[in-house]
Amino acid sequence: MWMPCPTVSGLFLLLEASAEPEVREANISDVRRQGVSGEPEPLTEKALREASSAMDILGEALVAGAYSKAWSCREDALLVLYKKLMEIPVGTQKEDLKNVLKGSVFLIRRAIKDIVTLVFQASLKLLKMIITQYIPEHKLSKLETTHCVERAVPLLLARTGDSSARLCVIALNFIQEMALFKEMKSLLLIPSYLVQPLKANVSVRLAMSQVDLLARLLRDLGTGNSGFTVDNAMKFALSALEHRVYDVRETAVRIILDMYRQHPALTLEHLPPKDSNTRWNLLYKAIFKGFAKIDDRPTEAEVRAQKRAATKEAEKQKKEEMEALQGQLAALRETQAEPQEKENDTMKLKNQDPQGRKAALPDTLENPDIHYLDNLHLLWGEE
């Protein structure tokens, strides 16, 4: 015999009785931890007005636990809700499933803002289960997933700027993980939040978290139908280059270099031309130096150094060539001078006797005694 599926509200009432011992047991441990009554205190008038819709769906006991001042009660309420959602049978009416989803998201939003790490982590566990199991198993539409994300992600992003480093890291890692859910990739929602320009009054930690998360997801998702494009990523990175904090600017440079590896031509279109004075900015010099390393080519500074080294080497080589030429010229002159010297010596030898005679001839003419003696000898000889 066919039995109609119970409504979710009816199912929750049936499960509430079995859940109460768990809650009481958890509350007993809370008494040992905190020394106070384990029962969640009654809801205030403000809480009753605020959570009336959630109470109609999930029951007053569970909502009262989520609103309790005792952090263990808040954690336990989320864990009980997790279990109840997992026990809802397939085939339950869609309208009831959607109502439970809305009530659950309401409590998740409250828990995401909780300062206690365990409560915060319980909210993330519940949110992940809803996106990856509850919605797909009950064949709810993407609109329900979008509703969850749009209600939760802005609060999660705010927690990435939390003063508690631990909560900040947990939030960052969960957003990155959530963006990689197969149920999330087609929605392109998380990238659309991250590429929003940094506000001037945003805290340093929040600014750092946003650029860091964007850099992570760009590497994970790329720019192909992921919600990231070269245009929106480069616009964000260029605006982040103007941020007052060095770490934010440095991460923006890393984003630009990652974009250049994937899309060099499109990335260059967003940067100043070569003749722009902006390129002499230290950050832009670092960017273009990074481009050169990616392309495996020398940077502008290395090119200038190479030119200086080449000029110096050319001057040195020219000097050596000049010295070599001067040496060759000197040797040539020496080889040409040797025959000339020999020729001069020969000419001197040839000209020595005639010059002696020419020099002696005037002496004989000038001295009459010599002629007299010569004539005297001649006369004696004849006799």
Task: Write up this protein.
With 383 residues, this protein is mainly α. 77% of the residues lie in helices and 0% in strands. It has 18 helices and no strands. Helix 3 crosses helix 6 (94-112). Residues 1-6 and 17-37 have low confidence and may be disordered.
Provide the descriptors you would attach to this structure in a database record.
single chain, 383 residues, mainly alpha, 18 helices, rod-shaped, disordered N terminus
Summarize the structure.
The protein has 383 residues and is mostly helical. It contains 18 helices and no strands. The protein is 77% helix and 0% strand.
Number of strands: 0
Average pLDDT works out at 82
Q: What's the Cα radius of gyration? A: 50 Å
Order of helices and strands: HHHHHHHHHHHHHHHHHH
The fraction of residues assigned to DSSP E strands is under 5%
Total helices: the number is: 18
- Provide the low-confidence segments as ranges: 1-6, 17-37
- The oligomeric status of these chains comes to single chain
Gross geometry:
rod-shaped
